[in-house]
Amino acid sequence: MVGSKAKWADIEPGYEDPLSSAMTLREEDMPALFETALEAGNTALAFQPVAQCRDQKRIAYWQSQLRLYDARGIALPVTRYKTWTAGTETARRIDCAALELGMQTLAEQRDIRLAVRMSARSVGYRPWIDCLMSWFKRVPNIGERLVLEVSESSAVHVPELIQAFMRDRQQQGVCFALDEFGSGNANLGSFRDSFFDIVKIHGAYIQDVHLKPDNRILAQALALIAHRFDMLTVATQVENSEDRAWLLEAGIDYMQGNLIAPPTLYPRWLPAG
Asked: What is the pLDDT of residues 79-94, one digit of tens each?
């Protein structure tokens, strides 16, 4: 089994007992807690499916989400780690941990495709590159089932570096997804010159989109831009069937959110134990 999941509760970070979390997870402690978790290997992956809008039972791939735990098994708020680790080696080490667990999952589960999040800056971090290349050598064609996901805010910082990396890795079958599309960081020029296969429309435009005319216009515009450049579209944070119906009508290709399934440490394809 990937990671040490037997000792972790399948609870999303931020949803544990509020009192104990408030007492123990102070912001100033976060960098040290992340470092300790990484050193101790207190890491695991949660998985959330990305499915077709037309048929939500058809899973295109699984999104992996790294979780870190303190010594008592409390999940640390990794979704906010950028606040505490921006520009530090800890952020790169978090990317390495996510990549190692993700590649191990792909090696063990030959029938799935998996997305692993990364920062564009990790392309220049030797341990991360070494991890990726070592798995390519150990497991033939593993890249064909790998989706590397880069946030829009990260991609704009080093566009030339990430574009060169993408060209090389796509020759090995790797797909690339642009996360948080529409967050306002990328310019259309750099987007035009990128090589993303998938764009994930920012959840801020998707939640309750069937009730919000302005968000419908924005989401449609983002999808139109993506399709113009032959990129598949994923709507994120899809929570209800009304939104799904609108996404289907708008021509969005795929969706991700609790309507399909919440993130879990124990997806159906992972062996028990």
From this structure: 666 667 767 788 899 9
Chain centroid, CA 165 distance in Å: 18
CA-to-CA distance for 158 and 182, rounded, in angstroms? 18
**Residue where the block lists tokens 């090696």:** 107
Contact criterion met (CB below 8 Å) for 49 and 28: no
Angle at which helices 30-40 and 89-108 cross, to 10°: 40
86 torsion bin: left (phi>0), alpha (psi -120 to 50), beta (else): beta
Number of domains present in the structure of the chain: 1
Given a cut of 60, is residue 22 above it in pLDDT? no
> Residue 61 is part of which domain span?
5-256
- Report the amino acid identity of residue 254: Y
pLDDT band at 10 (very low <50, low <70, confident <90, very high): low
